[in-house]
Design goal:
566 residues, mainly beta, Jelly Rolls, 3 domains, seven-stranded antiparallel beta sheet, elongated
Length: 566
């Protein structure tokens, strides 16, 4: 199998107003759903699937509550007990770097929307409320709307169910800037015993760059037709309506940064990838085997199949099991997805098909402990899409019946003139950046070659340590059958290539050049532990040093490199 790479090339325009951005790149084993104008139709599907169109769907008014604000505010009115009013506007707001630049309905500057203007004389925590007409008691309602929260001073948008003169607490809220885009929200309003009003409240933040927009409000009779309200990134302390089960053994915890135990749990959340982002996890310290923690979604309903996407982290030597269940009654739980044991240090994507159901249901994340404290399980970034989950590369590879090995190693690349570290197996070369490579069906007798390429100066030392080869796909497990810590001067049978430009060096402590290379080994983290490195002093640019492994035998008869999926 050929090793290939993709390249994103951005070309600067004629001035500084030409920034280009990309995000969330994924590769799936299927044809492309959306055809660029220059695409080869032989390799693309004939029509894009539902949900990928960039053309806004027309706004269809179905009730007296519905409003796209194109002509007026419909049946929505300004509250009399707040500090200031919502504004009806089109195009950008009066302040740069905050608020919408167009409405949601028409996605143009000609369309109208509502927003709060947070410039003076507004001060922090000033509120503006928009109130619906009165809704009937003992009825089911689904609230849908689009909102825009962009600016460094954005505070909060909240939704209230006001009964009589009592506003209460928000039943839905969002805080902080979400970028210059419209976002969809949906909330299933619990059946009320009394008549009520729906209230949108915008709260001013610490500065003038805090404009919040609102558009295309709809109130549907009955259950919400989609499962959007399952979606959650857990940045909100209310957990988007997810609740702890009262009948399980213990609770899930909301956390940021690393968990309280070493060598288990994530180092950061998935949403932000930093110590400031939140996620949900189970703390397995002082827990026995088989204890359960369940996190339950709000009640939703859909007669159509949906796909729930989420990210999970199952890292540690004592990992138990994570299940996704569909709950349609007190004791009626159907397992939709399950994963057990150590899955590595990184966040991994999970997909669970939500089956069509004519009655309301809830989704449950159930974590079951194993024995030991290194068993923390975490989840983050739950989202829902229309249609069943398609066959992904992840599930396809899990179902293959082949012989597979995992090569794992630690490397150190520090210096201003860094070269390249490559792995070579039977002539196939793949650059490595994460330290995990899955090696599938090695041809007869094959050698693994570590190739170091010198940079442009002496500050380009590269080090290698703790090389391990194990049966099976890369999972982060420490149960390896072939490993090398390079503590023995025989270096586990690894040999210097005789056809390269220079050799790797067996070293302990700091390398001979300052401001480059490691100061200790990885195995023990001390200056007495040994590792392999290439000394770039005295070498010309692109000089190559190769370290060859012992031969590993297998008779399956083919060679391929399978990247580890994250």
């Amino acid at each position: 199998m050929a090793v290939e790479s993709l390249r994103f090339e951005g070309i600067r325009g004629s001035n500084s107003y030409g920034d280009i951005a990309i995000d969330d790149v994924s590769i799936t084993s299927s044809t492309c759903a959306v055809k660029p104008s220059a695409a080869n139709p032989a390799f693309t599907s004939p029509t894009p699937p539902a949900g990928l169109s960039t053309t806004p769907a027309p706004f269809v008014k179905q009730s007296d509550f519905d409003c796209d604000f194109e002509k007026d505010t419909c049946t929505w009115t300004q509250a009399k007990d707040d500090i200031f009013d919502w504004n009806r506007a089109q195009g950008p707001t009066g302040t740069s770097f905050t608020g919408p630049t167009n409405d949601h309905t028409t996605q143009s500057r000609k369309g109208w929307y509502m927003y709060i203007e947070t410039s003076a004389p507004r001060v922090v925590n000033d509120t503006a409320r928009l109130v619906s007409k009165t809704a009937l008691a003992n009825q089911q309602y689904c609230l849908q709307f689009w909102y825009h929260m962009y600016g460094s001073h954005v505070n909060q948008l909240g939704v209230y169910i006001k009964v009589g003169a009592t506003l209460g607490t928000p039943v839905w809220k969002k805080g902080t800037s979400l970028g210059n885009k419209w976002n969809f929200a949906e909330y299933q309003i619990p059946t009320q015993k009394s008549q009520f009003n729906i209230v949108f409240e915008g709260v001013r933040g610490p500065g003038y760059k805090g404009d919040i927009g609102l558009d295309d409000v709809k109130v549907l009779s009955g259950l919400c037709p989609s499962t959007v309200q399952i979606a959650c990134d857990f940045e909100d302390s209310k957990l988007c309506g997810w609740t702890q089960d009262k009948t399980d053994s213990f609770d899930w915890s909301r956390n940021r940064g690393s968990t309280g135990s070493n060598f288990t749990g994530p180092a950061a959340d998935h949403t932000l990838g930093t110590s400031k982002g939140f996620y949900m996890y189970i703390e397995t310290s002082s827990r026995g085997t088989g204890q359960m923690a369940r996190l339950i979604s709000p009640s939703v309903g859909s007669a159509d199949a949906k796909c729930m996407k989420f990210y999970y982290n199952m890292y540690g030597s004592n990992i138990g099991t994570l299940n996704v269940l569909m709950k349609t009654g007190v004791n009626n739980n159907q397992t939709l997805w399950s994963k057990s044991k150590n899955q590595g240090q990184n966040w991994v994507v999970g997909l669970a098909s939500l089956l069509p159901n004519t009655v309301p249901y809830q989704v449950v994340f159930e974590a079951v402990t194993d024995y030991g404290y290194r068993g923390d399980i975490a989840i983050d970034d739950v989202s829902v899409f229309d249609g069943p989950c398609e066959a992904q590369v992840l599930s396809t590879l899990e179902n293959f019946d082949f012989k597979c090995y995992c090569l794992s190693f630690y490397y150190h690349m520090y210096g201003q003139s860094m070269g390249t570290l490559k792995i070579r197996i039977e002539g196939t070369v793949g650059s490595n950046y994460q330290g995990d490579i899955a090696i599938d069906d090695i041809v007869f007798t094959s050698a693994i070659i570590f190739e170091g390429v010198a940079g442009t100066s002496f500050q380009g030392d590269i080090a290698l340590d703790d090389v391990r080869l194990s049966d099976g796909a890369c999972t982060g497990s420490s149960d390896y059958n072939t490993k090398c810590k390079f503590e023995d001067h025989n270096i586990c049978g690894y040999t210097q290539d005789q056809s390269d430009d220079f050799d790797w060096t067996w070293q302990a402590g700091q390398t001979s050049s300052s401001l480059t290379g490691p100061s200790s080994d990885h195995s023990y983290g001390t200056r007495f532990g040994h590792y392999m490195y290439l000394e770039s002093s005295g070498q010309h640019a692109n000089a190559t040093a190769r370290l060859d492994s012992p031969e590993y035998q297998n008779s399956d008869g083919k060679l391929s490199i399978t990247p580890k999926l994250q």
